[in-house]
Amino acid sequence: MTSSRPQMCMCLLKRSETDSMRVVMRARRPQVGVELTAQHRAGRLAFAREHQDWPIRHWRPVLFTDESRFTLSTCDRRDRVWRLRGEHSAACNILQHDRFGGGSVMVWGGISLGGRTALHLLARGSLTAIRYQDEILRPLVRPYAVAVGPGFFLMQDNARPHVAGVCQQFLQEEGIDAMDWPACSPDLNPIEHIWDIMSRSIHHRLSRSWRML
User: Fold this and answer.
1) What is the residue extent of each domain of the chain?
2) Span 35-72, pLDDT tens digits
3) CATH code 3.30.830.10 for 54-203
C-alpha cells in the first residue's frame, strides 16, 4: 500500500500540472513561415547581428520594397461562425469562395521612415528582369534615391528578377547601393505589415473585378 502512494502522488502532480496548463494555454492558429535550412538561419543571424545596433539615422534612408499579390476571393481562415454541434455542413455555415481566386493583381511598393513610393500595378504577365528595370528601378527607385541623397539603401529580396545581371548593372551604373538581404526572410521586411493591412481591408470589401480591386 505504501509503495503505490508515491506513484499516486506523481499521477496527481502530473494531472495538476496538466490542468494548470489548460488554464493558461489556449488554442491558437499556428504561425506560418517558410522552411529554413541551416544556411538560411545562419544568414538571418548574421544579418541581425550586423544591424542590431544601427541607430534610427542609419535606417532612415533605407527603402524597403517588395511585390505582393491580392486576390478577389480570399479564404484566410480568419472568419468564424456560431453554430450548434452537427451543423458544420449547413449552407449558412459555409464560406464559399472561388478556388481559383477569382482573379488577382500584383503590385510593387516601397516604404521608408521618411515616406513611400507610389503603388505600382504590375500588369498581366510574369515579372522579368527587364520589366523590373523598366517599370520599377528606372521610374520609381532611381528618383527616390536621388531625393534621399547620400546614404540611400535599396532593400529588395533575392527574387530572380531583382538579382539578375541587367538589374545589378543598372544599380551599379546609377550608384544605388542594395542591402545584402538574407534569403528566405520576408518576415524581416517591414513592408509585409503594409501588405497584411491591405489584405485585411480587401478581404472585407466586395470587389467584383480586378479593376475595382
Assistant:
1) 54-203
2) 899 999 999 999 999 999 999 999 999 999 999 998 86
3) no
